[in-house]
Amino acid sequence: MTPADRLLWRAVGSAGWWTPVLAVATVAGAAAELALPAALGRAVDVAVGATAGESAGRWLAAVGGLVVLLVGAGVVRDYGTGAASARSVAGLRHMLIRHILALDPRAAARHPVGDLVGRLVGQVADAGQAAPTIVLAGTVLLPPVGSLVALTMIDPWLGATFVVGLVLLGVLLRGFVADASAAVAGYQRAQGHLAGLMVEALAGARTIAAAGTTGREVERVLTPVPELRRHGTRTWTVLAGAATRGAVLSPMLQLAVVTVGGLSLAAGRLTPGDLLAAIQYAALGAGLGTVVSALNKAVRVRAGCRRAAEVLTEPTRRYGDRALPPGPGCLELRGVSVRADDGRPLLDGVDLRVPGGALLAVVGPSGAGKSLLAAVAGRLRDPDAGEVRLDGTPLPDLSAAALHTAVGYGFERPVLVGETVGAAVGCGADPAPVARAAAIHDFVERLPDRYGTPLAEVAMSGGERQRLGLARALRAERLLILDDATSSLDTVTEYRVNRALTDRADRRTRVVVSHRVGTAARADLVAWVAAGRIRAVGPHAVLWDDPGYRAVFRS
């Protein structure tokens, strides 16, 4: 079973008990639809006197009952289709979001953000139609097969005529599924590409406006439009072709049944009621619209499952089940190497030991690998070779809760997550202490509801946002990693924050990526990174004697 097939059945399962309800309602509706022409035919025969000894009222009551059943089944089917789809879409989106957020960073980088959003919003919505579509596909042949049986029972010649028509319909539908599948899959790929380019453009909107390159960006974002139009046109062409052929063949088939039925009526083999029933069965069985609609839905569901399953096959970050032993927060990198997708070394054989409770400044020229080293140190990225240990425990062996409790990250451009300001800080019942250390408490106290203020209603500068992110990082119990986390602060605020971070009373291990000579001077140790390697480790005062080290800060 392919990943797309597994996702398809997962979607059906997410619909819960609505799937059997839909199946019962659909089958009941199809049965009533097939029984109605026969009941009408018998009522007509009784009314015109073609059948003696029967009560017209009984057959009229049967017709009324079948109509009520048809209406009831249609209501349940329509409501159940919406309810089942909603449950499936919700279940699939929860699953996909959890998987996307748990992806290994390298796997996530293979999919542009816009493409992931497109799959989550568009393709999952298609895949969520799996339950009603499978029910529809499983029952779509009931009307034509039932009509064939009924026509054969009325008159074998009518059945033979109808078989010829069904064979012609099958020939006309040949190739529809393959053509429609290719067109829909191509359309969804182009749609994802367009969404990815659009997200990139929106993220860099200010840069684009400042550079005056709006025209070029519009052309770049709209690059997939011709492909989108081509696949869209192909989709509608395939559908229109199938519908057109059906529109031509269906009345011809009904006309053939009417002709054969009329001859049988003239020969005395049929009653007027039988002819009426035969005409209705011919119309019911020859209706191509339902079959084409079912096939089109099946194609879209299958394509949606395939696109969503592509993301679900990407590997997620794996965690162990160990807790950290007691310790001061000693950080060790042993033979750590990280390579780019093209094999180029980004970090090459890095060995580094940071004593527990020490403040380590990571410095080096742009592109040296400082941020990557910081990402590896806290397991934002796993190395391709070597290992990282915290108090002697390899980071992959730690449970997710143990790792996230022990390690905190502060970034240059933090993303704040949570409904309120207090939730964004994320330090439990009392976020004030870490907010004071990040010099953001006074700002929060001026908000209408203080830490309970909805985050979406707070207008913040870059520095205030950075300090809130820093406050969240300060919840770490054992290892604090800051990657240019004070770059947007003014001089006075940065001084206050740095004093808190370099306080000797803070017993956590701190790794600070910085370009500031003052930060390096206050650190216990400095790791000088160059071209993906550790060039030297030592106190700032000792390294300062090297002209190359001094040049790092001049650049």
Defining key terms:
555 residues; alpha/beta; 6-stranded mixed sheet; 10 strands; 63% helix
How is the quaternary structure best described? single chain
Summing up helix and strand content along with how strands pair, one would put the structural category as alpha/beta
From the spread of the alpha carbons, the general shape counts as elongated
Helix content: 55-70%
Major sheet strand order: 6-7-8-3-9-10
Stretches where pLDDT is under 50 for at least 5 consecutive residues are: none
| N→C terminal distance | 57 Å
| Nearest-integer average pLDDT | 82
- Largest sheet, if any? 6 strands, mixed
Count of individual helical segments: 24
Rg, please?
35 Å
Count of distinct strands: 10
Strand composition percent: 5-15%
Could you characterize what this model shows?
It is a single chain. Helix 1 (3-14) packs across helix 14, helix 9 (176-203) crosses helix 14 (288-312) and helix 12 packs antiparallel against helix 14. The strands form 2 sheets. Strands 6-7-8-3-9-10 form a 6-stranded mixed sheet. A 4-stranded antiparallel sheet has the order 2-1-4-5, covered by helices on one side. It starts with a helix and ends with a helix. The protein is 63% helix and 11% strand. The chain has helices at 3-14, 18-48, 56-101, 105-109, 113-127, 130-139, 142-154, 156-173, 176-203, 205-211, 214-221, 225-266, 272-286, 288-312, 370-377, 400-406, 421-425, 432-437, 441-445, 462-473, 491-501, 517-522, 540-543, 547-554, and strands spanning 331-339, 345-354, 359-363, 385-390, 393-394, 407-411, 479-483, 509-513, 525-530, 533-538. It is elongated, with a radius of gyration of 35 Å. It contains 24 helices and 10 strands. The model has no long low-confidence stretch (mean pLDDT 82). By secondary structure, it is α/β, with parallel strands linked by helices. It is found in: Cell membrane. Keywords: ATP-binding, Membrane, Nucleotide-binding, Transmembrane, Transmembrane helix. Residues 331-554 form the ABC transporter domain. The chain crosses the membrane at residues 15-36, 57-76, 130-150, 157-177. Pfam families: ABC_membrane (PF00664), ABC_tran (PF00005).
